[in-house]
Design brief:
The chain has 128 residues and is mainly beta. The chain has a single domain, classed as ApaG domain (Immunoglobulin-like). It is built from no helices and 9 strands. Strands 4, 5, 6, 8 and 9 form a 5-stranded antiparallel β-sheet that branches. It has a 4-stranded antiparallel β-sheet with strand order 1-2-3-7, with no helix packed on it. The chain is elongated. InterPro entries: ApaG-like (IPR050718), ApaG_domain (IPR007474), ApaG_sf (IPR036767). It comes from Mesonia algae.
């Protein structure tokens, strides 16, 4: 599990290989990831949007951004957490993801970024 804390917000990531799929006559490698966002600060915060950079071993990258996560903009109170699962397809058995969440502190009304630690995507059959 990969973890990182930014401004009292702890991000934990766990990944899993889901299999290979044929899409548009090309093999794609499917990965799922489970993210827990834990509020270790003294203020309630809300996740408003996300930014992802997804790279594969062939140096192809894709940017994914949008509002919330899986259709939600969770409010996370001090000491609480929000967990969600999602996934991605890449064109090689290895890759990585990194990014950030845009959040709002309800006490100060300030917007801030929470870094998502870079994590690897790897198909177990491709490892030595």
């Amino acid at each position: 599990m990969i973890q990182q804390v930014t401004r009292g917000i702890k991000i934990s990531v766990k990944t899993s290989f889901q299999g290979t799929f044929l899409k548009n006559y090309k093999i794609h490698f499917a990965f799922s990831y489970r993210i827990t966002i834990e509020n270790q600060s003294n203020d309630s915060v809300q996740l408003t949007s996300r930014f992802w950079k997804i790279k594969d071993a062939l140096s192809r990258s894709e940017i994914v951004q949008g509002e919330g996560v899986i259709g939600k903009k969770p409010v996370i109170k001090p000491g609480e957490s929000h967990t969600y699962s999602s996934g991605c397809l890449i064109t090689s058995p290895f890759g990585s993801m990194s990014g950030h969440y845009n959040m709002v502190n309800f006490t100060s009304t300030r917007k801030f970024k929470v870094l998502i630690p870079s994590f690897k995507l790897s198909a177990p059959f491709a490892l030595n």
